[in-house]
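Work Package 3 (structural annotation) set out to generate three-dimensional models for the target panel prioritized at the project kickoff. During this period the team completed the workflow that converts sequence records into discrete structure tokens, so that structures can be stored uniformly alongside our sequence database. As a representative example, we reproduce one entry of 209 residues exactly as it appears in the project archive.
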Amino acid sequence: MREPFPFMRGGRLHRLFSQARGPRGHSHHHGGDHFDSAVFTRGRKFSAKDLQLMFLALLAQKSWHGYELIKEIEQRSQGYYTPSPGVVYPALTYLEETGLVAVEANGNRKQYRVSLEGSAQLAVQRDQAELLLASLTHVGKKMETMRRAMAGENGEADESGWLPEYIEARRGLKRILVLKAGADSAEQGRIAAILQRATREIEREPGHE
């Protein structure tokens, strides 16, 4: 199963994280490692299939030039991930050749839009496409949270929109799951049931009890 947040190892955010740590590897932001460093160090860049699906999802929203797609992904990830033209245009060419996108000439540039075949393919892979786009937003919020922490800025909610209690709840869950790594099968079952209930509760739309 593909990791849910397949980001590039050694990318800009990883470098920022490294710069934010003290000489012994401790975060300058009190409270320990607050930036989920394992995500950055163990991540991997998007595969060709990931990028094709991501572009398909974006092109379903509106038509784009290749350069605009690059800037959109850069903006969504707050500059953490910027695909190179050498990666983007072969992916778009593949989508065009397979009939998943249609191309129109716009001056000296190509403008891409999703085709009927592409819409049908996207419907089959909707969940994975949404997860890929959400992963860009997620790491973008991490970027903004890190910038503010490095600048010593505090507040009820930072520019990412993440409340401190939300961040602490995520960290608390991650910490307890690490501590429970050696749990026996009965305890694993109990934890799984709790997490499944929590997942259903989070997925439920507000106001729809």
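The longest strand covers residues 101-106.
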